[in-house]
Write a structure and sequence with these properties.
Helix content: 55-70%
CATH class of the domain at 3-121: Mainly Alpha
CATH superfamily of the domain at 3-121: Tetratricopeptide repeat domain
Radius of gyration: 25 Å
CATH architecture of the domain at 3-121: Alpha Horseshoe
Length: 350
Amino acid sequence: MSKGRRRAVLYGAAIAAAAGLLFAGYGISVPPDPGVRLNGATLLAGGGHYDKAIEICDVVLREHPDSLDARVFKATFLAMAGRHDTALVAYDDAIAHAGDDEEMRRDLILDRAGILLSAGRHEEFRREYDRLTRLGSDHRPLVLKGMAAVQAADWDAAVEAFVGAREHRPGDHQITARLWNAHMEGGQAALAARRFAKALDAFDAAQALFPTARKAHLMAIEVRLAQGDPEDAFARGRALDPATPGLAPLLFRAATELLEAGERGTALEALGTALEADPAGTRVLLDKEPAWDSCRNDADVRRILETRQIGGEHRLPAQERVIDTHGAAPIREGPDRGRNSPRKPATVPE
């Protein structure tokens, strides 16, 4: 992510938080300070008003012909709008005006290469990769390697490249997020292929990068259930916030498998935790699961149903799963969308 784009995002977020000034025409209606105009353009682009955002950049460039920020912002907004050919020309213009700012120039070449990759122009992408490599050995060629591996769904190669890039810049959250994505995608591919140990390693590695990102934790629980270890699955689930969306069905599956394995006490504890996570959804699952027929009316089960709840809100439809282990595509909810394109740079997962 280029310095100019990162600056745009930060400025735009600050303005939005302070004044909530996201409305059409904002960038033109404020005083004609170039920085304020570009901040407004960022807000407009964030709302999908790309033409208006690009228009603001053109206004700034007419008034301030030497503005590098306006050139960077314009190139970024053109890429966000999917106007790849025009964006590439705009990036060339920005690179030519980068002056002595070598770091900015390299960032812009990286962004430009990302557009070529997303557009399927692989020979030109390779030339940009060689161009960056000639400028010096740092994280950027490795980022491009990782992006190309992601596009080819070569998750091992993507992880290797992003790990190398992160060694150069351990504090770069964008690189870390790309590595998180590669671990997650590789883990899901391994799970679909029933390579459970590899999948668990990938999800555990993703957890280590962003411990608060819930999807990696849920997927690790899914793996342990698929491996036939409901006890560890329950232990992992119990360590999460009960309000975590998607947790309750996994806890209920663990409870059911524990019950079927004769671990009644642990099964009841897992059932209680599932009820804390999603009372209504867990009750629906309980009513439909034959494995609980023989003990559904036992005193201890009734007691759990009466006491182990944190509220009546149905947080997740009972039929939803984190992943369909029978072959359906996994639900995508993290930062993996748009991972190959500078239009949607990787962000820290939630």
